[in-house]
Amino acid sequence: MFDDITPTYDLLNHILSMSIDLGWRERMIEELEVGEGDTVLDIATGTGDMAILARSRTDCSVVGVDLSRNMLGQATLKWARRFGEGYQAMQGDALYLPLRDASFDKAMVAFGVRNMADIPAFIREVGRVLKPQGRLAILEFSLPPYPVVREAYLVYLTRVLPFIGGLQSGNRSAYQYLSASIRRFPSPESLTSLIQDQGFQVRRSISLSMGICHLYVIERM
């Protein structure tokens, strides 16, 4: 599915969020506190926006993992044009990362946890590859807690998003899936509890844009 929408993926992300996602991504990097020389794992890297943003803040190296070969190809091209070296793209499953234990200082996943078949297993797998006291930042859509905002957002998710996304990408079903995945995703409270059950400490839980998006900053114990 993601291979099919690669050519329009970046543009549609910004159009459909009215570019609000740019601020969310900046906040994620800020809260993750990526330091000079850090080795960063970008899970569900997509076309590499988060990897590039992290590198633009400080001199770090990034490994990007994604199931989509087309997305990884786009990410590699974007990074090479901007920085040259320092990015390694790997095709792989986030539940079975082809990486050594305790090999990363930081990890991040933007809008990818919704697609995980087993979220607890994913959290544990990231814990395996993080160094002690390593941090993971998760940026994910959520349903607003305010009734009026929630109702308006649900109309957007079920009607506007699939229509515009399908019109621009030619793949309406991909955006119907996106809408459904947001609606069935655990609430921030439920996800926080799930994360803690896997042995992580939730350092920050931040509601963004009236609850449309949520940022979790967690640390390996």
Which helices and strands appear, and what pairs or packs with what?
Blueprint: H1 6-16, H2 20-32, E1 39-43, H3 49-57, E2 61-66, H4 69-82, E3 87-91, E4 104-110, H5 119-129, E5 130-141, H6 147-169, H7 172-184, H8 188-197, E6 200-208, E7 213-220
What series of H and E elements makes up the topology? HHEHEHEEHEHHHEE
**Domain count:** 1
- List low-confidence stretches: none
- Beta-strand proportion: 15-25%
DSSP strand count? 7
Fill in the CATH topology.
Answer: Rossmann fold
On the 0-100 scale, what is the average pLDDT? 90
Q: Helical element count?
A: 8
Terminus-to-terminus distance: 36 Å
Q: Largest beta sheet, briefly?
A: 7 strands, mixed
So, the CATH homologous superfamily?
Answer: Vaccinia Virus protein VP39
The CATH C-level name is Alpha Beta
**What is the C-alpha radius of gyration, as a whole number of Å?**
17 Å
* Backbone shape: globular
Look at the helices and sheets and give the structural class. Answer: alpha/beta
Please give the order of strands in the largest beta sheet.
Answer: 3-2-1-4-5-7-6
At CATH level 2, the architecture is 3-Layer(aba) Sandwich
Notes on the protein architecture:
The structure is a single chain. The protein has a single domain, classed as Rossmann fold. It contains eight helices and seven strands; from the N terminus they run ααβαβαββαβαααββ. The protein has a seven-stranded mixed sheet with strand order 3-2-1-4-5-7-6, sandwiched between helices. β4, α5 and β5 form a beta-alpha-beta unit. The protein is globular, with a radius of gyration of 17 Å.
